[in-house]
């Protein structure tokens, strides 16, 4: 197990290093050097030179950039004098994380349930219904679902608040809009996995031991079928977290996504790059955790060593 | 004894047919290729055919749609802003008085083109890289796949957003950004397929007959993975269309005066509380296009490889 964790850790660290190196060189490639253009005020220019060390040779800049990141310093805003990326993250990320965690939990539970229902009713109306919901969920983007929900439930029916983030009622629509695509993905995967497991030998053994169908489904089929679903939780987290960009915009949630889009609109390159690095590293860490969990749950993975 | 038991059937009723080699060897039905067979199966899948028809219809409208109305997609008209759909402006007008029918179908050109071109380029690069890695194996494979694995571990959207920040906005940068992050999945898929196929007897036979590497790859391995490639390609078109819409929505995609469905939806979302049609029209087209392509992709998967059917 220790070897497995070490292996995963090394891969994650290399990935993180590649990501920050790419970001570093992309900064150098930015057209027209926006960091030092005339429009940038002197104080901010000072911030930029301090953070990136534009006056030093390239390899010193690189070392400085990496050591800044190791210290947890993600840089300064290019537009606002005293704003750092770290401050923005500290202020806004809790909202995004709150929304993201709700969406991951909601998507996992609903997706797995839908998949199980579909598989147990294979080629019956409930199966077709679940899979129809799933394919619609995959096809309709969150930025379509969000406004649609607002229009129906907030503006027409007046059941839920239109936007903002002030209590449970406010969380319902954003969570649903954000997680629909992932619900669909998980449901399809869970269904396929359930149908795959049905044909395994241990299900036959369970049947011949005389276990009841309920016991077989709960104790053998579902428990084994969930395994592949866990592997997609990493990518699902990534999808949901980037999905918050638009969902936060639509529902006026003061999360990181809102600042991200603001940064893009203001051409605040250093802000956008700093936040992108943060997102990237966060998601690489999330993937690492999912890998470890998978290794704990499924011994075949960690013994396989890969 | 024997004749009695047969009853009324007497020996005279039976004649000897004789043996005809040509008849025995004849194939009863016209032989059909793998692709004809797949097409036959696909035609029976109603959902997939509906998807195909909708895609053809939208493509047709993307070509002729903008010419069906006298209004230009760029021309603003301050006296006719935010008009609801009417006989004059079939999809209404936007906040600058531009005709939304023309903009929707010009947007369809951009969205569909980005989706198809990005998916095709991804497929070509993915097949080349995956094919080389899988076929040659060993060190080449290890180096290529380590690189692919690491790139794959960086979230796709993060790569695309980074590329867009650096390349600037527009249609070409968007396609390039989607391709930089997009070919990895196809490369992994093709490599896996090639690894399996290259151990099979027909490849050995080709080698023994003296076929070159290029011939084995192009004539034997790629055609046999074509089904999987095609399914993946179909599935990646809606992915690219979605990414375009997503990026345009957050302000990193296609810039005016060009239009795309994602950009129309982004503008629509800002005003939909007052003018809901401005969001719902592009949203409808994005959603139905993605739905159609997904249905078609599912259908193709079932048609090309019945074993995968669940």
Automatic annotation (TrEMBL), chain A:
Gene Ontology CC entries for this record: plasma membrane
TM ranges: 9-30, 99-120, 132-155, 167-187, 225-251, 271-297
Subcellular location: Cell membrane
Domain ABC transmembrane type-1 residue range list: 93-294
Main location: membrane
Family label: Belongs to the binding-protein-dependent transport system permease family.
Its membrane topology: Multi-pass membrane protein
InterPro entries (alphabetical): BPD_transp_1_N (IPR045621), MetI-like (IPR000515), MetI-like_sf (IPR035906)
Keywords, comma-separated and alphabetical: Cell membrane, Membrane, Transmembrane, Transmembrane helix, Transport
Gene3D superfamilies, A to Z: MetI-like
PROSITE patterns: ABC_TM1
Pfam families named among the record's database cross-references: BPD_transp_1, BPD_transp_1_N
BP term (GO), one: transmembrane transport
Organism: Caldanaerobacter subterraneus
Protein name: Oligopeptide transport system permease protein
UniProtKB/TrEMBL annotation, chain B:
Lineage of producing organism: Bacteria, Bacillati, Bacillota, Clostridia, Thermoanaerobacterales
Domain of life: Bacteria
One Pfam entry name: BPD_transp_1
GO biological process, alphabetically ordered: transmembrane transport
Signal peptide, first to last residue: none
Sequence intervals crossing the membrane: 47-68, 110-136, 143-165, 171-190, 229-255, 275-297
GO cellular component terms given for this protein: plasma membrane
Domain ABC transmembrane type-1, residue spans: 108-297
Name of the protein in its database record: Oligopeptide transport system permease protein
Organism whose genome encodes this protein: Caldanaerobacter subterraneus
Cell compartment(s), UniProt: Cell membrane
Family membership noted in the UniProt record: Belongs to the binding-protein-dependent transport system permease family.
This protein's UniProt keywords: Cell membrane, Membrane, Transmembrane, Transmembrane helix, Transport
Membrane protein topology class: Multi-pass membrane protein
InterPro entries per record: BP-dependent_transpt_permease, MetI-like, MetI-like_sf, OppC_N
PANTHER family: OLIGOPEPTIDE TRANSPORT SYSTEM PERMEASE PROTEIN APPC, OLIGOPEPTIDE TRANSPORT SYSTEM PERMEASE PROTEIN OPPC
């Amino acid at each position: 197990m220790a070897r497995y964790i070490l292996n995963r850790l090394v891969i994650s660290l290399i990935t993180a290093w590649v990501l920050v190196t790419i970001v570093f060189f992309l900064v150098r490639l930015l057209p027209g050097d926006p960091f030092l253009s005339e429009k940038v005020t002197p104080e901010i220019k000072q911030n930029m030179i301090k953070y990136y060390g534009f006056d030093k040779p390239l390899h010193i800049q690189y070392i400085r950039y990496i050591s800044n990141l190791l210290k947890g310093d993600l840089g300064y805003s290019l537009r606002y004098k005293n704003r750092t990326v770290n401050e923005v993250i500290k202020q806004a990320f809790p909202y995004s994380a709150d929304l993201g965690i709700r969406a991951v939990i909601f998507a996992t539970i609903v997706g797995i349930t839908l998949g199980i229902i579909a598989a147990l009713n294979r080629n019956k109306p409930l199966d077709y219904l679940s899979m129809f919901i799933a394919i619609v969920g995959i096809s309709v983007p969150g930025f379509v679902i969000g406004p649609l929900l607002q229009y129906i439930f907030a503006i027409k029916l007046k059941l839920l608040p239109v936007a903002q983030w002030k209590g449970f009622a406010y969380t319902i629509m954003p969570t649903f809009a954000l997680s629909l695509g992932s619900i669909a993905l998980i449901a399809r995967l869970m269904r396929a996995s359930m149908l795959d497991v049905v044909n395994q030998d241990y299900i036959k053994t369970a049947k011949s031991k005389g276990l009841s169908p309920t016991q077989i489904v709960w104790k053998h089929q579902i428990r084994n079928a969930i395994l592949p679903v866990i592997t997609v939780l990493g990518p699902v987290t990534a999808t949901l977290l980037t999905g918050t960009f638009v969902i936060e915009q639509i529902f006026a949630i003061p999360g990181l996504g809102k600042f991200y889009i603001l940064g893009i609109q203001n051409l605040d390159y250093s802000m956008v790059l700093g936040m992108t690095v943060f997102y990237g590293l966060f998601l690489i860490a999330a993937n690492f955790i999912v890998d470890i969990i998978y290794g704990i749950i499924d011994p075949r993975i960690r013994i396989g060593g890969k | 004894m024997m004749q009695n038991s047969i009853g009324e059937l007497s020996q005279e009723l039976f004649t000897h047919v004789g043996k005809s080699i040509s008849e025995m060897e004849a194939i009863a039905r016209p032989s059909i290729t793998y692709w004809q067979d797949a097409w036959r199966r696909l035609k029976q899948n109603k959902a997939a055919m509906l998807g195909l028809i909708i895609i053809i219809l939208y493509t047709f409208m993307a070509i002729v749609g903008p010419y069906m109305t006298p209004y230009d997609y760029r021309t603003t008209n301050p006296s006719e802003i935010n008009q609801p759909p009417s006989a004059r402006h079939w999809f209404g007008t936007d906040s600058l008085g531009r005709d939304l029918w023309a903009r929707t179908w010009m947007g369809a050109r951009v969205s569909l083109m980005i989706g198809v071109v990005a998916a095709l380029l991804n497929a070509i690069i993915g097949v080349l890289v995956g094919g080389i890695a899988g076929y040659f194996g060993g060190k080449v494979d290890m180096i290529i796949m380590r690189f692919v694995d690491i790139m794959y571990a960086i979230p796709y959207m993060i790569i695309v957003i980074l590329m867009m920040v650096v390349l600037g906005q527009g249609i070409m940068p968007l396609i390039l950004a989607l391709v930089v992050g997009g070919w990895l999945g196809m490369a992994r898929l093709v490599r896996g397929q090639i690894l399996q196929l290259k151990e099979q007897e027909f490849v050995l036979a080709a080698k023994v007959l003296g076929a070159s590497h290029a011939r084995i790859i192009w004539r034997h391995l790629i055609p046999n993975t074509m089904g999987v490639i095609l399914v993946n390609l179909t599935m990646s078109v809606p992915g690219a269309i979605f990414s375009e819409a997503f990026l345009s929505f957050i302000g990193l995609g296609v810039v005016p005066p060009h239009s795309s469905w994602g950009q129309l939806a982004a503008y629509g979302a800002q005003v939909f509380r007052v003018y809901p049609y401005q969001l719902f029209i592009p949203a409808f087209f994005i959603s139905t296009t993605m739905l159609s392509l997904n249905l078609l992709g599912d259908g193709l998967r079932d048609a090309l490889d019945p074993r995968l059917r669940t």
